[in-house]
Specification:
Radius of gyration: 24 Å
Oligomer: single chain
Number of helices: 10
Strand content: 15-25%
Order of helices and strands: HHHEEEHEHEEEHHEHEEHEEHEE
Distance between the termini: 50 Å
Strand order of the largest sheet: 4-3-5-6-7-13
Helix content: 25-40%
Shape: elongated
Amino acid sequence: MKENKGKQLVSKVSQLVEVLSCAIDRHVYEPGDFLPSINSLSEEYQVSRDTVFKAFRILKNRKLIESYPGKGYYVNDHLVKVLLLLDQYSSFKVTLYNSFIRNLPANYKVDMLFHQYSESLFNTIIRDSIGKYNKYVVMNFNNEKFSDILSTIHKDKLLLLDFGKFDKKGYSYVCQDFEEGFYQALMSIRDLLHKYRELDAVFGKEEKHPRSSLDYLRKFCEEEHLGSRVIDSLDNVKVEKGILYIVMRQRDIVKIIKSGREESLVCGKDFGLLAYNDMPVFEVIDCGITSMTIDWEEMGQSAADFVRDDTPVHKVLPTKIILRHSV
């Protein structure tokens, strides 16, 4: 009975936090405005004074409200500035950004920049940002090396996002595993993959995706007695029957589908197609494109939790398969 009451109380606190947060986001309460008293909110929402007090405490921890002795709680007009530095634009980065913004209070201002995998641009952005932001959420320009300039940011203020294979040096991070995670995702559909004689990775020489994924593709194929190749360019390459193509870039997906049609081959039947990182368009392209991906919504939410709550995080997101007709 006590456990049920506890769960009910937590639910009511969460609901009240959501109601008040939305009211602040919609400017029902402007910065500097005092919120209704604990007694009036208790009566209005038919909850206990303790529930209101706990909701206020959560909002205060999120820096959305502040208290004034003898007067009550008011909407915080303190602006929290956040730098969100990503590698390059893509539709799944939009998903990440939208999730990040949606989970932050109204008084958080986010500047989103892209470094385009340029070390000089990356260093310039970080150098120019020092002291201007309360929090830094950063994707490195190199998956194999920790950027020295990041050491100029206090560890409590920096979240390493989507980082790969290097020592995180005690920093908070939310990342994906391009090696074992990649391998385990393939293992999850191993029975389906045995309809193909070969798994080929379309992986250009300038591809920014970590090349260590190729080692784990070879490992999987060797264990499962499947062939494997790396295709660095689709120029003059004809799609072949019995091959599953693992593709990193959307434009290469289009090329493979077109090539398959030229050879009178049906995607998902005569040959397979597996894309890295899911996009909404994959649901409607051709017969539906199977993807290997992390949950970009979760990455955005986890990043927001770090920024909002000052809570250290060390999380590796699982790589999963979204199965559609192309495999």
